[in-house]
């Protein structure tokens, strides 16, 4: 079970707002938490935050969870006080109208709503299609441009309003679950690993700008130059109507974290993790992923320098890239335990050459 202090950190992290390129608030919360058990913590020029234990060890493991989230950015302020915006990351247009948002300005969080033309004024053909972002706007209740400009500037980032809550006995809901839940997992894994006697170095990375091209993981992995990289992201839960299990597999909330088997995952490392899961009785679910390669930080960590043995651990997620993503804390706990127990088996001299290493 997660401790009260861990759950407090989870809630604080989820209530942060930090779209890609503007992760400062989230980085601050993450950095402060890591200081409680890391040998050293730093944030780099990109905004990645790294907590380290056993920094002098030659063999290095990188734990990665990105803490940026999808959002928007202010583009134009009209004379009427209406704010126009563009997307930052993979926005689902169908979920945008009516969303409560917060503009992260120099004056603080400015609340607003995303508006559109009322349904009564739409032509019939317009009612059956998603509203384009260019036809939507943000309303902060201002009466004119001058009022807006006292609070908001062009270029300010925008996120969905913080809305974290516990649901039922085991589940949590929040905007930005993708992938602050992964950042939470790697932080908790580092905290547990600090209690163990390891002869390897562990680097816990809260990565930035994943949603716009895996950018933070690219630079942090180059700097760390790890032997092993374990990325934690969210995966698609398929225990919902109208999701084809023939395409994505049978993935249920509460049945354990997902282990991926595709081109981004080193076969030897995956087999080691599977063996650990069976030995320690840690529930897990297998997925080939929804594509052969790409889409998570694993892909870019794997290609660092002369190559890294990588594995992706995913927390099943409902309603990905919506304002109401849902995960199960049992899967979160399983992901933490699986990573801790797997890393604890690693030692200097381990190699992961497919077809050669057993």
Task: Give the key terms.
358 residues, alpha+beta, Aminopeptidase, Elongation Factor Tu (Ef-tu), domain 3, 2 domains, eight-stranded mixed sheet, six-stranded antiparallel sheet, 17 strands, globular
Strand order of the largest sheet: 1-2-12-3-13-16-14-15
Count of discrete domains:
2
User: Which structural category do the helix and sheet elements fall into?
Assistant: alpha+beta
- What is the tally of beta strands? 17
Report how far the terminal alpha carbons are from each other. 33 Å
What best-fitting shape do the alpha-carbon axes yield? globular
List the helices and strands in order.
HHEEEEEEEHEHEEEHEHEHEHEHEEH
CATH architecture of the largest domain: 3-Layer(aba) Sandwich
What would the average pLDDT be, to the nearest integer?
96
CATH fourth-tier homologous superfamily of the largest domain = Zn peptidases
Number of helices: 10
Low-confidence stretches: none
Helix content: 25-40%
- Report the β-strand fraction as a percent range: 25-35%
What CATH calls the topology of the largest domain is: Aminopeptidase
Q: What is the CATH class of the largest domain?
A: Alpha Beta
The major sheet is characterized as: 8 strands, mixed
Give an account of the 3D structure.
Helix content is 27%, strand content 26%. By secondary structure, the chain is an alpha+beta fold. The chain has two domains: 4-69 and 176-343, Zn peptidases (Aminopeptidase), CATH 3.40.630.10; 71-160, Peptidase M42, domain 2 (Elongation Factor Tu (Ef-tu), domain 3, Beta Barrel), CATH 2.40.30.40. Helix 1 packs antiparallel against helix 5 and helix 5 packs across helix 10. 47% of the residues are buried.
């Amino acid at each position: 079970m997660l401790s009260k202090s861990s759950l407090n950190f989870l809630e604080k992290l989820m209530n942060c707002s930090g779209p890609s390129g503007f992760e400062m608030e989230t980085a601050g919360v993450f950095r402060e938490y890591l200081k409680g058990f890391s040998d050293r913590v730093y944030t780099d020029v990109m905004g990645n935050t790294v907590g380290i234990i056993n920094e002098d060890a030659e063999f290095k493991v990188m734990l990665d969870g990105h803490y940026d989230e999808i959002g928007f950015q202010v583009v134009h302020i009209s004379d009427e006080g209406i704010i126009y915006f563009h997307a930052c990351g993979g926005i689902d247009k169908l979920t945008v109208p009516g969303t409560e948002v917060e503009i992260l300005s120099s004056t603080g969080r400015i609340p607003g709503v995303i508006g559109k033309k009322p349904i009564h004024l739409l032509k019939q053909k317009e009612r059956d299609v998603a509203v384009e972002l260019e036809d939507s706007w943000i309303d902060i209740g201002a009466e004119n441009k001058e009022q807006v400009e006292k609070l908001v500037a062009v270029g300010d980032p925008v996120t969905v309003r913080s809305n974290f809550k516990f649901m039922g006995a085991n589940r949590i809901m929040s905007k930005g679950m993708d992938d602050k839940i992964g950042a939470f997992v790697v932080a908790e894994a580092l905290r547990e690993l600090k209690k163990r006697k390891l002869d390897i170095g562990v680097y816990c990375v809260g990565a930035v700008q994943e949603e716009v091209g895996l950018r933070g993981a690219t630079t942090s992995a180059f700097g760390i130059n790890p032997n092993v990289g374990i990325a934690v992201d969210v995966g698609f839960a398929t225990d919902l109507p109208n999701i084809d299990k023939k395409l994505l597999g049978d993935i249920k909330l509460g049945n354990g974290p997902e282990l991926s088997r595709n081109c981004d995952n080193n076969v030897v490392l995956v087999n080691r993790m599977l063996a650990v899961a069976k030995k320690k009785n840690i529930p897990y679910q297998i997925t080939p992923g929804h594509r052969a390669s790409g889409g998570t930080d694993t892909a870019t960590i794997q290609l660092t320098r002369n190559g890294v043995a990588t594995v992706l651990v995913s927390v099943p997620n409902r309603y990905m890239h919506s304002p109401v993503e849902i995960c199960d804390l049992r899967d979160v706990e399983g992901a933490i335990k699986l990573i801790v127990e797997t890393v604890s088996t690693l030692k200097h001299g381990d190699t992961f050459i497919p077809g050669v290493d057993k």
